[in-house]
Each structure stands twice: as C-alpha cells, then as structure tokens.
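Lecture 7 notes. Example A: sequence first, then its structure tokens.
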Amino acid sequence: MANLSYSEQQERNIHIKLMKMQKELPEMCTLFFRGIEPVTQPRTRLAYAYDLTVFFSFLINSKNEYKNYTLRDFKLRDIERITTTDLEEYLEYLKYRPDEDKEIINKESGLKRKLSSLKSFYNYLFRTERIKVNPAALLKLPKIHEKDIIRLEYDEVAALLDEADSGDKLTEKQKLYHKRTKTRDAAILTLLLGTGMRVSECVGINIRDIDFENTAVRIHRKGGKEAVVYFGDEVEEALRAYLDERIHVIPCSGSEEAFFLSLQNRRMSVRSVENMVKKYASVVTPLKHITPHKLRSTYGTHLYQETGDIYLVADVLGHSDVNTTKKHYAAMKEERLRKARSAVKLRNA
C-alpha cells in the first residue's frame, strides 16, 4: 500500500468494493463485469454494481414471484421473463422511493444513469447470447435538459480567495480552525481556480509531483493516466507559502508523501476539500451552489474567454473528447455572437 500512488490506492479500494458486491449479486453480474472490464474504468463498474443492486431489490420488493428471493437467487431465466412494462415500472420506482428513514429522489441525470446501466447489462447478455430477448432495448432514456453552467465571476473569484486569507465572514468556531488551515486552504483554492484540475487530482498530489523550476505539477487523470499541468505566478506563490508550513509537519503513516494534509496530518480527502470550498463559497456567494467542480468550470470559462480556443480548453481540462468541452461552453460562444450584433454602428446618433 505504501508504494502505491493515491490514484492506485483509490483504484484498489474500488476493486475491493466491487469484489465484495459481486459476491452478493447474481452470478451473471460477474460475467457482465468481466466482459466490460477492457472498455470501462473500475469506478464505472462499481457504479453499475450499485445500480444493478437497486434493480434486483426493486424486483424483490415489487414482484410477487421474487418476494422470497435474495439478490443471489436470480438466474438468467428470471432476466428473460422481465418485460418492458416491468422496466417502465422500475423507472417510476426510481423517481421516488422511501429507504429506511430517508427519501431517495432521482432526477433526470440519476434516472438516465441507472437506466443506462441496466441497458448495458441487458445488451451484454443479449450480445453474448445468454438471453434471447432484450426488453431494455425498447426502453427510452429520459431526456436531459441542459443546465446553465454555474461559475464564479472575476470579482467573486477574488472575494473567495480574500475570504480564504482573512476568514472575516466565518463563524467564531470556524475562525479558530481557520488560523491553522488558511494557508493550505488558500493554496488549494488557488490551485483549483488557476489550473482547472479535478478535486481528485488535487488531493492526489505528492510533494515530489510539484516542479517549481518549470512551474508544473504532475497529476493523475481519470483512469490513472499521468499528465503535467502548468501554473502561473499566483498559484506558485500560494503553493510555496503552504510548502513552507508543510515541511514542518510530521504526517501520519501512509501520508508521508502527500502534499495537502488534513488537521489530522493525513492526506486530504475529496470530501474534505468539498466541505472546505462550501464553507468559503457559502459566505461569499450564498446564492450559488459552488463546488470544486464549479471552480473547474470557472477556470474553463475564463480560459475560453481569454483565448477563444476550445481545443486548448479541452486539452488543459483533460477532456478526451472535445465535444464534451463544446457542450459545456457552447453557450459562451452564443453570447459572443449576440454581442457582435450591436458592436458595429451604422449611423452616428
């Protein structure tokens, strides 16, 4: 474990979770995961496992013929008996369902993901001739209505960084912790806003990954692929300030190489960074729900505004498909076109 990088440790943990879930799911699910392994990431297969658990639980709770089943009892013949109507009922079940002491609500994106998982499962079984009918093929995925990109304006970026430095708007209790974390917090926020990296890439950084001579940092993208991201003067200044503190901290076992440490001297987690961003953003921009991913969108927006080069934005953000980038920033292009309509005056007033 000590010799594994952060991304490798995360992948190992996902693999362990998936193996545990496979033992509870029907045997055909193991065949499915094995079959799609070459073309999917571990995190994707784990998401499929969760989604299939929900599907089989629905059958047990909603269909009399399966009420005495466990997840493990389902066989291929049961899968073949499922009709498109059953799957449409499943769609209704997904929209809202009580679960012990809480309510689970799936909106458009959640519904689409769960149904996509089910369609992939059925498609694999049908393609490999393990079942003769594929009712999921007739199931239409819910339409996703595109949402506006939530991002910070330039003045809001400055206000967020100022708040991380000062902590003036925090509660008295928060201010006590702020004294110990403000340099680290400012470094993380500056890094996210100045490079557009993902929060998982940020917390995975080790001390030896930072190259101040070339103002670059080595990160691990989705799937474990290494990449080098370059940073500017403001990011360098924030990182150096934190490093001056970091080198005097004795980390816990297993976190010796980690750059960003928690107050417990362990590698920062994704959740910790999410909570930290929320803490500062909630007092600076209370009407915007700002997350680390919104900081990434902020960087992408500002980079596109400055360069107008969508391919550069895609490359810097690590998008494997430029169409992903275009989908997110197409609205900005339309805004520029609308501004052009009144840029040229035909007559003097």
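Example B, a different protein, same format:
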Amino acid sequence: MPKNIPYYEQKDRENTLRLREMIKELPPYCSDFFRGIEQQTSSRTRIAYAYDLRVFFDFLQKENPIFAKMDLRDIALEHLDELHVTDLEEYMEYLKYRFNDKNQEVVNKERGIMRKISSLKSFYNYFYRTERLKNNPAALVQLPKLREKEIIRLDVDEVAMLLDEVESGDSLTDKQRAFHQKTHTRDLALLTLLLGTGIRVSECVGLDLTDVDFKNSGIRVHRKGGKEAVVYFGEEVEEALLDYMEERRHLPAEEGHENALFLSLQMKRMSVRSVENLVKKYAKIVTPLKKITPHKLRSTYGTSLYQETGDIYLVADVLGHSDVNTTKKHYAAQNENRRRSARDKVRLREET
C-alpha cells in the first residue's frame, strides 16, 4: 500500500482491485458494463453491482434448467435476450429466501430485493442502450413496494445521557472500563463530532489531522463520489476535539497511519466497523430498546437541525445529500408534528 495517500484514495484503490477479482468470476461481457458505468458510479457501488449480478447468475444456474449445466462464464448475452419478465419475477421470489455458496440461508426484505432488481435494471439498460440486447425485460419488472421506515433517533435527553456515559464510563463492565481509561477522550471527541455535525461514519474515519481547521471551526470531508466539502462545528465539538488533539499529538501511529485523526488501540486508523461497535457499546447502555448506529446519530443531527431551522435545503446541504428529495423523505415528516401542534393554538371561544 502506498504511504500517506488520502484515506478515500486508499479505499477507492482497494475497492477497484477487489472489483477486478469479482469481475473475473462473471461472464466476460460484464467487464464492458462496469467500464460503461465507471464515470457515473463510485467503486463501492460497482462492487455492490458485481455482488448482485453474481447472485442473479447463480439463480439462473440453480433455478433455470437451460443454464443448469452451463459454466457461469459461458452464459452469453444471447441467452439473456431470451429471458422474459416472468423469469425475472421468479428471480424476485427467489431473492426472498435463498442459500449462498456456504449453504447459509439468506433472507432479503423489500429493500434488499429492490437493490438487487435495481442493479439488474442498470445492467439490462446498459446493453439495451448499446444495442447489444434486443429485449429489455428488466424495464418491465415492477419494483417491490417499500414500507415507510420509522426514523430512529436519539431524543435530546438521550444525547446528553450518551455523552455523559462516554465521559464517565460508569455503567461499563470491568473489562470495558479498562479500555475506557485509554480511549474515553477519543470516544468523546468522535461521538461529539458525529452528533454535532451529522457526517457519515466513512467520512469520520477518513479524517486526517490536516482536515481539522480550528481557526474557522471546520473539518474537510470527502463526500460520496469524491466531492470535497467543509462542515462546520460548534463549541462543544471544538472543546472535545481540542482535548483529543492534545492526546493524539503524543500517540505513536503505525507506519502509513501517521495522518489519521482517530486511531485505534493498535495505533492504526479506525475502521467503520470499529466505530459502529463503539456507538453500539455506549448506546446499548443509554437506550437499550433503540438500535442506535452511526447513521442514527446522523439522523439525530439532521432532525435537530431541521427542527431548529425549518430549512430543508440547509439540512440537505450540510448532510451532503445530492437530492433534496432524499432529505425531505427523511425529515420533512417533522412538519406533521408542527401541524399537529397548531390544533391547540387558536381558541374559538373563551373558556368560562
């Protein structure tokens, strides 16, 4: 791995190399598809597509007698041209309950099925648009209807309780408390930053020391698609970061991780998984009935910002949503609470 290249470039490089290996297991023409969508998608999205396509071709071999005796790489575009809408509807049914290569049962709910069908639609659309397929049955498949997911977030008092727990560690087990003594300053800075800016967990672990600007109270993050943005933070975040930076200055980072802002106990850049486990550990103490993840902390910030400002475009901009409709879908439901609160504001008759 090259030394001291930015985190997001490292991840993109790792994803690109991984994708190359995944493509080798797919029919040869799949390489054309991935080259065709490279400019419009991230490497992470293309990996998801490669995984979804592998599932689709596995389905053809397991469930369709025409493909049962064929090697996966021998399935040609001409064969895909012969498929009908009913074949793809059978695929949707197959996705609900299936077994992977390790004979483990995989259950897909509506969102998982929708993602895999969307991947297949993109795949068919590419070859239909480039006139290498005459038929496009995927375009006729109706996506499953999604049920509205309730937004899980922390209440104001739960945010305070969470940060208090991170600071004190009073409710941790003896084993957890031993780690807490070494990491509580880092943990407090990290969770305060997530709750005080709404940045994604991937953006958080990707932060370098040079990305923090105390003079202007901002951090430089790399959004989805490689876009760079500055996100500003308040006094509480600044105070927590300053405390951690004083400690971070004396930590001997491993080679290749010298620039990382948040370090693990192994003196390496923290991973997304380690931050997820960190959030889970503290949140389970404060609110055991809510499944709190770093993304739920992002939702907590977005909700609070919308409630304070009522400006959905500001929320979209700060959270880095490319489409404001994404933000509206998640946060504009708060308007319902405002409308409901209006019912008691106007009196039609004076009380006697």
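Note on Example B: The beta strands are 97-99, 105-107, 212-213, 218-222, 228-232. The chain has two domains: 7-140, 156-338.
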